[in-house]
Amino acid sequence: FGCPFVCLLPICNLDGPYMVIMRWLVISTLVTSLGYRPEHTFDFTEGSSYENGILDTDKAEVLGSGESSLATVTGGSFAQEDATFKFSVETEKPLKKQMKKALEKLVGLWVRDKPQDLTIDEVLGKCSDSSDRILIAPAFDVTCKNGTVKTMGIKRKSNATMADLNVALEGLPEILDVVMDGSNISGDLKDLKMPSGLSRLQMRGCDVKADLKDLQTYTLTALKLSGRKIHGKLEDLNWEKLEILDLRGAKSVTGDLSTVGLNESSPLRGLWLQNTSVTGDIVELLKRHP
Prior knowledge:
- By secondary structure, this protein is an alpha/beta fold.
- The protein is 21% helix and 23% strand.
- The strands form 4 sheets. The protein has an 8-stranded mixed sheet, covered by helices on one side.
């Protein structure tokens, strides 16, 4: 449509019904070519803002002329006169999108090119309506509640670091249990920004560095760590809800069992401190916590 104003000239000399038809066709083409968009036309580029929130999908439902259809928009704008547009209910929720990226990161680190039992989309589908253990790959599973990942168990070997795991856990803000015994993860535990509600942390058999005082802010029910790089005092831990403590082989861990703040109401039911530098009489501990 190279010269719109020249093309309009013949219309001025047309009479009868043809004039109306030609005028409508030419003007319709003209306004489209000049970038005009009807009042109810939206730009559906992914991430575009609209009055009810953020568009997270490239699909929109188009209602016009009494008919309804689902339009897939690959980019740019979708124009239709006299139509009302509304966004599809298939829009992904931000938390679900975060979880998907997190699980993709974990699979990339611990599964890589090996076969998976389920795709990430299948895992998220099961997560939305099940609280059962969901097997992603051998020795790699999660459990969910109310559509969010609550526990993660990985016992596959990888060269992943704490920094790698930290990126993934940012997308799992409601996770409670991180069980990674034998996963071969390495690095300093202080580089891992764990969710404040973390309940269980297990990384036995891994090349992990940790200071027990860095775990004071967490009300853990179970802690299992091992190796020469684990150090600190028993008194540095929060014992309020601690049920299981396993620090076998952590020779740099010190403390006196007789000064650990336990009483009859403490929930402790398992304690493994072999090959540590902890002192004190366990009999006295048992008297205070039968």
